[in-house]
Specification:
The protein is an alpha/beta fold. The chain has 10 helices and 15 strands. The structure holds adenosine-5'-triphosphate and magnesium ion.
Length: 339
């Protein structure tokens, strides 16, 4: 068998095939640090709380981090920032490792192939993804897997554009980044990322309105709609403004990049938008409206949003891993037939 895993700034999601179903396991990529002496022993004794104890400190990791942060009045922290391992949280390496181990489990059998998502280098920042990619590769190898990186935008193409022969534009609007990939027949012809996503929207909105980032994030995730009619001057009004600005920014970068890459003109290209930041009602409508106004040398045949935007990249990594496995089996079979 083969697996896929999406290692994102906010969510880590594994995918595997069981019969005709795809099984996903998800954890938040976050942790909180608490004094051991404050903590009732039985809270951790609940067997499924992921945690690490270091001397007098306990680190609660993954989905439970937010609950514990609320109880103990602490802020959650994140091992990754803007799509890659955070240089401000180097001590968080064991936490992200624990989350990856929990969502992926043991290889079955040893040496099982796993495709893991990595972002493209951002075009608007000095950040490099190489260290991030190589560090994840070594975690996965240590766990007994045979890891292979897959570009996050390309994973969207594998997940959502099988019906158009893996041809189209896939965009993953995540927490730390937005990843873009243009593919023709499963060959990526343009991949890039920008170091802006949901975290940027939250941070800007918090600064503009004086709310905390955590509060803004929860308002945004709880039934916020991109309709520009409500709450001028409030958090939802500010969220709409920064969403709009993010879309303008991403589309202007797509326009710059396609014009630089000499992409063939006049093609009809399907576009898929996904990632948690694409969740609000009204997102794809606004995207389509802005995209049509932009200077882009191809026509879009459709803009679609996926039903489960948090799972697309994990699913795409799985599809890519399984397709490699299938090709391997085919070439083994034909080599045998020749013998
Ligand atoms: N219902 C929702 N409405 C609006 N935003 C949402 C919703 N659900 C999740 N988000 C936002 O989506 C982002 C997380 O999306 P996703 O899991 O795709 O990112 P990621 O893969 O972890 O990050 P990246 O790809 O940038 O490394 C966060 O900014 C989160 O606040
Ligand atoms: Mg992502």
């Amino acid at each position: 068998m083969a697996r896929g895993i999406d290692i994102g700034t906010m969510n880590i999601v594994s995918a595997k095939q069981e019969g005709s179903d795809t099984l996903f396991v998800q954890q938040r990529n976050s942790f909180v640090e608490i004094d051991y002496s404050d903590m009732a022993e039985q809270m951790l004794a609940r067997s499924d709380v992921l945690h690490i104890r270091k001397g007098d400190q306990v680190y609660v990791v993954g989905d439970d981090a937010l609950n514990f942060a609320n109880i103990f009045n602490q802020e959650t922290r994140r091992p990754m920032k803007q799509g890659i391992l955070s240089s401000e949280e180097q001590s968080a390496i064991p936490m992200i490792k624990l989350i990856i181990e929990q969502v992926l489990g043991e290889p079955e059998p040893a040496g099982e192939r796993v495709y893991y998502s990595t972002p493209a280098d951002p075009i608007d920042s000095e950040l490099s993804t190489l260290y991030h990619q190589k560090t994840l590769e070594s975690f996965l190898s240590d766990m007994g897997y045979d890891p292979e990186p897959i570009n996050e935008g390309m994973a969207v193409i594998y997940s959502e554009l099988a019906d158009s022969n893996f041809t189209g534009l896939g965009i993953s609007f995540g927490a730390g980044m937005t990843n873009v990939c243009l593919s023709y027949y499963a060959v990526p012809v343009m991949t890039f990322s920008v170091a802006r996503g949901g975290d940027w929207v939250d941070g800007q909105t918090a600064t503009a309105t004086g709310e905390t980032v955590d509060k803004v994030t929860s308002i945004k995730e709880d039934d916020f709609r991109l309709d520009f009619t409500t709450d001028a001057g409030g958090v939802e009004g500010a969220l709409s403004i920064y969403y709009d600005n993010l879309l303008d920014y991403v589309i202007s970068k797509i326009s710059e990049e396609v014009n630089e890459e000499d992409v063939e003109e006049g093609l009809d290209v399907p576009v898929v938008v996904t990632g948690g930041t694409a969740s609000p009602t009204g997102f794809e409508g606004l995207f389509e409206e802005r995209f049509e106004q932009a200077d882009i040398p191809f026509n879009i045949s459709s803009v679609s949003k996926v039903d489960d935007p948090l799972y697309s990249v994990g699913r795409g990594a799985l599809v890519a891993a399984r397709s490699e496995e299938g090709q391997q089996a085919e070439s083994d079979a034909s080599a045998e037939a020749e013998d």
